[in-house]
Amino acid sequence: xxxxxxxxxxxxxxxxxxxxxxxxxxxxxxxxxxxxxxxxxxxxxxxxxxxxxxxxxxxxxxxxxxxxxxxxxxxxxxxxxxxxxxxxxxxxxxxxxxxxxxxxxxxxxxxxxxxxxxxxxxxxxxxxxxxxxxxxxxxxxxxxxxxxxxxxxxxxxxxxxxxxxxxxxxxxxxxxxxxxxxxxxxxxxxxxxxxxxxxxxxxxxxxxxxxxxxxxxxxxxxxxxxxxxxxxxxxxxxxxxxxxxxxxxxxxxxxxxxxxxxxxxxxxxxxxxxxxxxxxxxxxxxxxxxxxxxxxxxxxxxxxxxxxxxxxxxxxxxxxxxxxxxxxxxxxxxxxxxxxxxxxxxxxxxxxxxxxxxxxxxxxxxxxxxxxxxxxxxxxxxxxxxxxxxxxxxxxxxxxxxxxxxxx
Length: 408
Known about the structure:
By secondary structure, the protein is mainly alpha-helical. It has helices spanning 8-40, 44-59, 61-70, 73-96, 102-125, 136-163, 168-188, 204-217, 219-249, 254-275, 285-301, 308-336, 342-355, 357-370, 372-392. The protein has a single domain (8-392), classed as Growth Hormone, Chain: A, CATH 1.20.1250.20. Helix 5 (102-125) crosses helix 13 and helix 11 runs antiparallel to helix 15 (372-392).
């Protein structure tokens, strides 16, 4: 269930802290890649480190969902941010002292990924307890707007910090640690009090099984999770094929590549502003299907007109439609799922979306090496095909049993 009374200051603290830490994470990822390539000359190692950060979300994420449903979401947000801050700060200190190495960095990435696996379900499932149901679309629009903004400005901030002699790689990583601590401070002021339901005496594994039974027993939710994984599989192709397309077809530079990514982020920001309109927008499976089909069409048409201006426009269009889908998808899940299972459902969504990434990287990388233009077409048409099952899903669950209110 959603909050009976809105807590705008608490929601503002949640999204404000999330924005600061997300910006720090974007900077950290850029600085990490720069440090690894500078020190080792290998891009493969960067991939391994990013995989170490993603692995916990894919494999232990469901336990994070159980914890989010059983325990105080506010406490989980605060603790995971504090631990993440300590890890990132420590990595920065090691870099400053020039004693950082790949094994230590791998452990740090795994620790940060573990905290993210626990943090994300809590952050998404607490939103319905801070805003009213009719405000869920706007709430997710604000969250996704700030996420897209970090994608647009984060690389610029990271590059500027690395270029400053007084900051450099170590300083940028230290600032990332401080961003997590600021996020923890913001989460600490959220007006939220966990209310037990009497079922908390069961074990973690029992709750985990109950969560999977709930998802498996709700056709709508189960199919939405599978569709999320399928859509993510096809959309990953953009990240893999784009640099190949820019260099091999357009004969562009890294600057060209960066401008296209910025255009995608701008499109994502634009749609969140549209969704902040005063008129209430109800997320429906039909609307989600239209957005997915439009985003897939933009992806498929990218190589049709091999020009930089066309690529910028279509990248912005894809960012617009897929950003709209992401915003409405989260609001859709928050409306349809019983509150007592919401953390577990979100953790499985993240697990499914990230679990397909290794296979997607391999498959689209191979297709890109063979025929990069056809890769865009295949990925775009596959995304469009994902919209068809959405039209066949029942609009709402047969009955939503209210979960416990948990705001004070």
